[in-house]
């Protein structure tokens, strides 16, 4: 079970704070999307840690197919 599930067809807009770390769910199974809740332990997939360099809004990938994890690259438009 190593295939990522599509959590949603579109990104999650998240306001991030300078220096804070965010753990993005890469498997698509977390109940607390877009964040990891440990559900990946039933897969070979692992979460990705994102550390904010400034206060801003980022777009975490919802389809889990991005080539630039954890950020959305628009891949959901091709699904």
TrEMBL record:
The chain positions of domain Iron-binding zinc finger CDGSH type read 9-46, 47-79
Q: Which protein are we looking at?
A: Iron-binding zinc finger CDGSH type domain-containing protein
Q: Which UniProt keywords apply?
A: 2Fe-2S, Iron, Iron-sulfur, Metal-binding
List GO molecular-function terms, semicolon-separated: 2 iron, 2 sulfur cluster binding; metal ion binding
User: Does the record bear Acetylation in its keywords?
Assistant: no
Native species of this protein? Litchfieldella anticariensis (strain DSM 16096 / CECT 5854 / CIP 108499 / LMG 22089 / FP35) (Halomonas anticariensis)
Gene3D superfamilies in alphabetical order? CDGSH iron-sulfur domain, mitoNEET-type
**Which cellular components does GO assign to this protein?**
cytoplasm
> Phosphoprotein among the record's keywords?
no
């Amino acid at each position: 079970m190593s295939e990522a599930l599509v959590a949603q067809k579109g990104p999650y807009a998240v306001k991030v704070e300078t220096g804070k770390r965010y753990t993005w769910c890469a498997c698509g199974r977390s109940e607390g999307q877009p964040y990891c809740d440990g559900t990946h332990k039933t897969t070979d997939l692992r979460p990705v840690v994102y550390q904010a360099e400034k206060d801003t809004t980022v777009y975490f990938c919802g389809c889990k197919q991005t080539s630039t994890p954890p950020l959305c690259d628009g891949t959901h438009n091709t699904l």
